[in-house]
Amino acid sequence: xxxxxxLTAHKLKELMxxxxxxxxxxxxxxxxxIEKCDGKxxxxxLANKEKAVKNAAASKNSxxxxxxxxxxxxxxxxxxxxxxxxxxxLAGFKPPYDSTVTRKLEDAGAILIGxxxxxxxxxxSSCETSCYGPTKNPWDTTRIxxxxxxxxxxxxxxxxxxxxxxxxxxxxxxxxxxxxxxxxLKPTYGRVSRYGLIAFASSLDQIGPITKDVxxxxxxxxxxxxxDEMDSTSVDLPVPDYAKALTNNVKGLRIGVPKEYFxxxxxxxxxASVRSAIELLKSLGAEVKExxxxxxxYAVSTYYIVATAEASSNLARFDGxxxxxxxxxxxxxxxxxxxxxxxxxxxxxxxxxLLGTYCLSTGYxxxxxxxxxxxxxxxxxxxxxxxxxxxxxxTPTSPTPxxxxxxxxxxxxxxxxxxIYTIPANLAGLPAISIxxxxxxxxxxxxxxxxxxxxxxxxxxxxxxxxxxxxxxxKKRPAL
Amino acid sequence: MKTIDGKIVKxxxxxxxxxxxxKELKEYSGQLTSIxxxxxxxxEIDTTNVVPTSHALTTLKNVFRKDVLRKSLTPDEALAxxxxxxxxxxxxxxxxxxx
Lengths: 480, 99
Known about the structure:
The complex is a heterodimer.
Chain A (H helix, E strand, L loop, with lengths): L8 H10 L4 H19 L2 E4 L1 H9 L11 E5 L26 H8 L3 E6 L33 H8 L5 E6 L5 H7 L2 E4 L19 E6 L2 H11 L29 E5 L9 H16 L3 E5 L7 H16 L18 H12 L2 H14 L5 H24 L2 E5 L15 H5 L6 H6 L3 E8 L5 E8 L4 H13 L11
Parallel strand pairs in A: 2-3, 2-4, 7-8, 7-9
Antiparallel strand pairs in A: 1-3, 4-6, 5-6, 5-10, 9-11, 10-11
Helix pairs in contact in A: 2-3, 9-11, 9-12
Chain B lengths: L5 H10 L6 H18 L35 H5 L5 E2 L2 E2 L9
Antiparallel strand pairs in B: 1-2
């Protein structure tokens, strides 16, 4: 039996303190679970048993995550370990340095167990663009786990890890967390250092936790948050004690429900679950009010200009010179670039590079990129106004439960629209969490999204924790 | 509606140092046309006098660090992932024509 695998980090810490278990026992059970399940789920692109066992056996750390296993998304650099962004173009790449989050996790005593599958360069909402093939949803293996941090979310849901990190540019932590029935948190932009996170869209990317409950999300965020001089966009503000925000109390809290989020395209079962979640918060003493975020319908368009423009620029560095793939038989330097990039990038990466390059090209910059940056201002101002009337905002995380593998691969626009509710938080830089709030009749998880003001993760945690303490959805696990 | 034809896709692909075959050109031309047509929705909004957001953190100013020496990667570490190397350099195909 691998019964420790199903526990949370805070529970395992308790057991270790009491002497009821050890890091080595946890890690050994976890790898037997991974060996049993991952053939079916395919959440891992690298399972580092030898190193994890060695570190667990030697674990003497008394840090916040002492002896707790953590899985990292494959776009987070670990020194000397394969880090490929699930892309052929980074085949064989072993970073010469650690990301800041990696260093912080190890300093806190965490045991790193490997790398999680993802959409190539985080370009996708289904994990299907990975060069390793798709991860499967643990609740129904004919369905996608969401993306791009699909491997991280599926591994947490299937008890193949205790904690995981993902990255979120337009919903890539929250949407897979919702679709896999776990907790996923995108921190405020600047809260967590991006140093060593392979960049997708630099003005939107944030690293964040994927966990089994809200308490673990607060614990993991408290370890990775904070200013880092290696990331000039990280913010030099003190990190609050997030554990203190976990109070089972929403009395008097003003919760906003944006009317623009309950529109055509929102699945009826998702809507029903989210509405009853809002009713529950109300019955617990929150003051619920309808608010308006009038520019919501422009968020996806704005995002696909800003994100692809920044991505096309960030991905210019993959040219076969310094690392990763280099195509053979090039006749000169330019030919080498072209062959390497054409062979190394998958379809979705090429599509986004083309779209971004087009939006930045001479004659179109003002019409697309600059226009999108201005609409981004309008979207931010919507939130500024809304937060004058409420303390947090509650919405669905994803318009539908998990869809079938292959269902949307030939229709990029319909895939892009699955991020309609998560994108605004990235454009405005706000913290947002997805927590389990129900199941469809077919047994697929449904997520509730809670957004708060910039750097007010505490109100977000308070709302999420209260909901969780009064429901059982987060305790349900898929049968595997 | 603006059509992104094969010729435009080919030009943009070249700017991005990508080479596409005819099948890809056709596919991307259709997809980019429909994505850009969806995106053109933004023209509905009047953005006269709106300051563009280049960054989510409006308070961020330029960041400097102290001009002091610190440890950096050794040449071997920096070159460890190089597809081709010669002494302490990345080796690449010929750039300048002639000898």
